[in-house]
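## retry 2 of 3
previous attempt timed out at serialization; input unchanged, resubmitting
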Amino acid sequence: MATAAIEEYLEAIYTMASEGQPPIGARLAERLSVSPPTVTDTLQRMQKQGLITLTVRKEICLTERGREVAETLTRRHRLSERWLTDVLGLNWARVHEEACKLEHAISAEVEERLSESLGRPTTCPHGNPIPGTPGEAPPADLLTLDRVAAGGRVVVERISEAAESDARLLQYLERQGVRPGAELFVEEVVPPDGPIVMRAGEHTAALGKEAATKIWVRPAETPAVS
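## retry succeeded, writing output
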């Protein structure tokens, strides 16, 4: 049985791959805030347990068993976030950390009842899809906000998992009205790596390029996938 630490690795690998980031040791170390030697040791244990494989380019791939564990954890994590916000009223900037604790303790029965009681939601409060629900596949025209040119009009689809552990960033986005479903107008992109100036409703905000890579959007003219 995988330990809680290994489960965190599996979940991180799964979310990185789903966001188009090839999972490699260095990125995983950064995502989990651990040292590269620790990542190397843990990945070796995961290989022995049949949870991952490594390609010749050192990219980490989940085995069928590893993917099953990762999807279960991700589903329970995102359901927990939905419960914490929708039922308990916690701020969306705080729920990620709490859900990280809950996801390891939820049983299959509780998971099913939780989903049913919440009306079988398809996304977490940050817009990320809940595995095993209709509409799980993201729209094909998604891109990150840093790739939108000045004058672009887009709709926020989801906030990357990489941003969820940054409570200050989430609080800032909330104050500026940058949430899933919000329409943004990009007023200015300061070259080459300067901030992106955007308008969300009555709010005008500036966002650094690194933070903008963590916000997934779609063209405003394209209807949302139901």
